[in-house]
Write a structure and sequence with these properties.
The complex is a heterodimer of chains A (about 475) and B (about 120). By secondary structure, chain A is mainly α. Chain A contains 18 helices and no strands. Chain A has a single domain, classed as Amino acid/polyamine transporter I (Up-down Bundle). The model of chain B has no long low-confidence stretch (mean pLDDT about 95). Chain B has four helices and two strands, in the order αβααβα. The chains are: A mainly alpha (about 475), B mainly alpha (about 120). Chains A and B meet through α5, α9, α13, α16 and α17 of A and α1, α2, α3, β2 and α4 of B.
């Protein structure tokens, strides 16, 4: 296999750049975004019930929905202007500078790799639960974890089109399973199957629990912004990215609402707050074997689609950093035949497998949430600096979001609140995550940055920023 | 007219060590605390003296749902009585806030310095 390392096209580099293939349409973008996030309806969101009760989780779902609305508004403006592989990473590189870009790239890699670990963990746990229900108590989930991640990494290695086409089918099937469950519990006939009036309780921790539940409220939507990771592989980015992302957000809002309604009407909150596979448990509670089979398949598909999308996104962020020499240049290689970032795909597998092996779903999810949250905290700073350095009219923007700087201010307030929510109950894990990013940032400044070609970090055809 | 920065070429071994360093950092800072239980949720359990559905605060519908899930009062008790500990240690809260704030201030300041180099080279050479 020849070593074809993609290099920058900027000044000072005479090599020809091997690009990623432009083969994706809006359906693939929808599948990439929803495929990653939909699993959040099948597991993880329910930990917000554990932290704040059923009503606390619902409030978290709405408030964090507002956070993501701000993210979508800000991201639409910046992504429509900086449409390049790496998404927020490329934005940070142009607007804030290399160290911020390095961190944003790592947020993406860590958020998606930990989510991938959680997905694989769920597949293993689901098979273990099925084995227990069929009278076999000794099933070890670990081989299935390795099998799932290896198979999906192989698909990603072979090519993005096949990978995301598969995601489109299995994501659609998983979404349909939620709708089938919703219809199956007869929501038009309250009290028959759904028992909201008897199962819903007051806020168990009061309002501080509601704030605490914001932490896992992120899980309803985490990763939807990953659609812009595919900017370099989309046939028509200006049409496909907004269309795929917006239909994705609508899909998630519907799925989140249905999920909360069904689960809280069937399962006591104390169990729901600690369940590994709450939607599958909800199907079990209906007593219908058909619904149970649908939700088993739906959970399996959602976790698989999510892990598939995560491998795609994490490897592309790592690849982009390798191409820019923020990471060893060896990772910036494109496969000569499949045109995929094959080395980045393979490198991240052991991390995902290791964390999946721990079996600690809430903590693996928290690492993913924290990396995502750090990325959302970067966005308002980035947006304010973007408007200040390139005021409206100075460059061509695909979209200009209204009410600036209100979305940035609201997003920053919600991010700070969610950091506090994580401190409530998971304070040491928050500190561990921050220690990682502090050490790795110092490593970048003191060691890694010397390998970076300065002028190559700015590839947009923009004028000099104001104040520089 | 400023001078263009020509970065050194990193050797294969150098790249290998950088990749190993990053992997080691992930395992040392994130993975080891996880498997040794240092980063788990702060929670408490207050078990009633007599364990039954009533003392666990479960009404008839809740009891029926627990039983459908395959639980008895004894097996469900720990799950039902587990509560997060949301008591706030002001010192830890301040330390956490300072670390997060300091981290972002560091990122913004150093990134700006680096971006000025990038812009200077991109536009002035």
């Amino acid at each position: 296999m020849s070593d074809q390392t993609a290099s920058q096209t900027g000044a000072g580099s005479g090599q020809e750049r091997i690009g990623l293939l432009r083969v994706l349409g809006p359906a693939h973008v929808w599948a990439l975004g929803v495929g990653i996030v939909l699993v959040g309806e099948f597991m993880g969101w329910n930990f917000s019930v554990g932290k704040g009760g059923a009503y606390g989780a619902l409030i978290a779902c709405w408030v964090i929905g507002l956070l993501y609305t701000c993210v979508a508004m800000i991201d639409s403006e910046v992504t429509s202007t900086v449409a390049a592989a790496g998404g927020q990473y490329a934005q940070a590189k142009h607007i804030m500078g290399p160290l911020m870009a390095f961190n944003v790239g790592l947020y993406l890699v860590m958020a998606y790799t930990m989510l991938e670990a959680a997905d694989a963990l769920i597949v293993g746990d689901l098979l273990m639960i099925l084995a227990e229900q069929t009278g076999y108590d000794a099933l070890d989930p670990k081989p299935f974890v390795v099998l799932v991640i290896s198979f999906l990494a192989f698909l990603n290695y072979r090519g993005v089109f096949m990978t995301l086409s598969l995601n489109f089918i299995i994501t659609a099937a998983a979404f349909v399973s939620i709708v089938i469950l919703f219809v199956g519990v007869q929501p038009w006939n309250p009290g028959a199957i759904l028992k909201h009036s008897e199962l819903l309780t007051d806020l168990p921790y009061g309002w501080i629990g509601v704030i605490a539940s914001f932490q896992f409220g992120i899980w309803y939507y985490l990763g939807i912004e990953g659609t812009c990771q595919a900017a370099e592989e989309v046939r028509s980015p200006s049409r496909s990215l907004p269309l795929g992302t917006m239909t994705g957000i609508i899909t998630l809002l519907i799925a989140a609402t249905l999920t909360w309604y069904v689960c809280t009407g069937l399962i006591p909150w104390e169990y729901l707050g600690q369940a590994t596979v709450p939607l599958y448990d909800a199907a079990r509670m209906t007593g219908s074997t058909v619904l149970q089979v649908f939700l088993f398949v739906g959970t399996l598909f959602a976790a698989t689609a999510s892990a598939n999308g995560c491998i795609n996104d994490a490897s592309r962020a790592w690849f982009s950093m390798g191409r820019d020499r923020y990471m060893p240049q060896w990772f910036g290689a494109v496969h000569p035949r499949y045109r995929t970032p094959f080395r980045s795909i393979i490198f991240l597998i052991p991390i995902a497998v290791s964390f999946a092996f721990t079996g600690l779903l809430d903590q693996v999810i928290t690492f993913s949430i924290l990396s995502g949250l750090l990325g959302y905290t970067f966005m308002p700073i980035n947006m304010i600096l973007f408007r200040r350095k390139w005021p409206l009219g100075s460059i061509k923007r695909g979209y200009v979001h209204p009410f600036h700087p209100m979305p940035a201010i609201v997003l920053m307030i919600l991010c700070i609140t969610t950091f506090f929510a994580t401190y409530l109950g998971f304070g040491l894990q928050l500190l561990a995550m921050m220690a990682f990013y502090v050490v790795v940032s110092i490593w970048f400044v003191k060691h890694r940055y010397k390998y970076v070609r300065r002028a190559d970090q700015f590839t947009m055809n923009w004028p000099k920023p104001v104040g520089y | 007219m400023s001078k263009r920065y020509d970065p050194p070429k990193q050797s294969g071994i150098g790249q290998f060590f950088d990749a190993v360093f990053l992997l080691a950092l992930v395992y040392f800072v994130l993975f080891i605390p996880l498997i040794f239980g240092l980063t788990g949720a702060n929670s408490t359990n207050v078990m009633p003296e007599t364990v039954n559905w009533e003392t666990l605060g479960q009404n008839e519908t809740m009891q029926a749902q627990w039983e459908k899930l395959g639980y008895t009062p004894e097996t469900a008790a720990e799950m039902i009585t587990q509560r997060f500990d949301y008591s706030i240690d002001p010192l830890m809260l301040i330390i956490t806030a300072v670390i997060i704030l300091g981290y972002f201030v560091f990122l913004v300041k150093v990134s700006d310095k680096e971006l000025r180099e990038v812009i200077r080279e991109r536009f002035d050479t």
